[in-house]
Amino acid sequence: MTTGPTIFDRTLLPVRRQRALALGPATFLIERVAEEMAERLSVVLRTFERAADLDTPTDALRDVLTLAGKVGALERASIVSDDGLEVMVGAQRSPFSEASLDLVVSALALQFVNDLPGALIQVRRALKADGLLLAAMIGGDSLTELREAFAQAESEIEGGLSPRVAPFADVRDLGSLLQRAGFALPVVDSDRIVVRYASPIALMRDLRAMAATNMLVERRRTPLKRATLQRMLEIYAQRFADADGRVRATFEIVWLTGWAPHESQQKPLKPGSATRRLADALGTKEISTGEKPGES
Q1: d(CA 102, CA 93)
Q2: Domain residues of the chain, as ranges?
Q3: DSSP string, 104-168
Q4: Per-residue pLDDT tens digits for 110-129
Q5: What are the tens digits of pLDDT across the range 51-88?
Q6: How far apart are CA 20 and CA 78, in angstroms?
Q7: CATH 3.40.50.150 applies to domain 12-262
């Protein structure tokens, strides 16, 4: 079995999370996601006896789901490296048995997985028939302001670019990944949250307190030049500041929903199985391919 490219240095993830705790974590984004996830689960008319929380960095999701009473046992799960492969394991560091879970949830964690298709396949295998995956991850339109400001500053000052902001997944690709992983009834949608900061430096402090700073394998290992940082701050303020001087930062939250296949689920109709013409349903005249509108 071969692995895909290694984009993230995941050995840094626990280090960054510990640093965020020491700094005093910035939790507003994950708390908002946790509340939204509880609302989305509230419309599912069933409870989930055995659920797993996949790599959510805080207890926010566990707290709201326990309070909502939608899950029985909520186990911790994580993605770990095993001989170069990323494996989903439980609290005892052993993989979940096939068809052993009713629900898998994840909040703001899957964007740092190197092999996202492989992780989704493992989730689907661990779910019982008609089990549910509900996950939220950072999407590709996040931090576009910071990305643009850094790119121009480095181009001007250093004559080239280095990876500063992670290449998060595009929402248009994630639906296909769910289908490839074998999920039924896949749905992908996104929210954009615009947060205003006193300065780009305040945004960067928040990213550090979210454990969301640069973990790219190809990141530049030398310290950021003072001139580059100063130019980035100038560009950011020029392009993305409001009238009151505060700057904007965009976070895209992408929601993934998919069900493990089950015979009770709704199936698409076979081609040619319709019993009523579309034109009749819409109350319009059907025009053949060789006839132009307006001709009698």
Answers
A1: 19
A2: 12-262
A3: EEEES-GGG-S-HHHHHHHHHHHEEEEEEEEEEEE-TTTTHHHHHHHHHHHHHHHSS----S--P
A4: 999 999 999 999 999 999 99
A5: 999 999 999 999 999 888 889 889 999 999 877 789 99
A6: 19
A7: yes
